[in-house]
Amino acid sequence: MVKPKTEEEIELLRENALIVSKTLAEVGKRVAPGVTTLELNRVADEFIRDNGAIPSFLGYDGFPAALCMSVNDVVVHGFPSDYVLKEGDIVSVDCGTLYKGYNGDSAYTFPVGEVDAETRKLLDVTKASLYKGIEAAVAGNRTGDIGYAVQTYVESFGFSVVRELEGHGLGREMHEEPGVPNYGRRGKGTHLVEGMVICIEPMINAGGRGVYLARNGWAVHTSDHRKSAHYELTVVVRKGRAEQLSTYDFIEKDGTINF
Ligand code: MG
Ligand code: MG
Predict the structure, then answer these.
(1) What domains can be seen in the chain, in order of their start residue?
(2) Cα(178) to centroid of ligand 2, in Å?
């Protein structure tokens, strides 16, 4: 049985979610052809610390950076590097914070300049599948209802769900119970209870669902080397409708960040 969070804990998770949401927007403003992923990582690291938080990915199991930066066929867990982003690339940015003893964790896949129509569709469908998952994250449902919602939506467009990785509970630890797979069957899995805080994070491939782990032991690549997208938001399970803690509003609403 997964213990729900208290409202006090949820407020601390909300503060983290806000910092993460704003960090992703700060990074997004700078995503452009000619920029390296290492430069973007520096922006995030500085922004997180300026807000009094710690980049929680840095040093996590030895991860070397504040952000996971996963370009094109990298699904997740890519290292920032001196790779120079070019027109038509996509870059999945995953960001984590530790603040007041609690965690933030959200991700967004940015297009670099103009991307082709198929890639644009992959981004749109992956993000929409996340919102389908959020719609299913209500008290009385189970984790399988979330997975089912994501999977059926994604597969109706001919894209595929990565199954080796999944969403998770969030709290004092970055990865808590329950696991939240992006595929599954309705009515199966962990019962969702009001006050549970979970990260839903579809990782969706343009081609087949097969993936492999790079020799560095971190970066997960698509086996067919086609592109993969990743969006992640943190929500509180509530009755009737989940409450979003992190948001893409800072990225998508008129491009300005207000504090
Ligand atoms: Mg994440
Ligand atoms: Mg996560």
Answers:
(1) 7-252 (3.90.230.10)
(2) 12
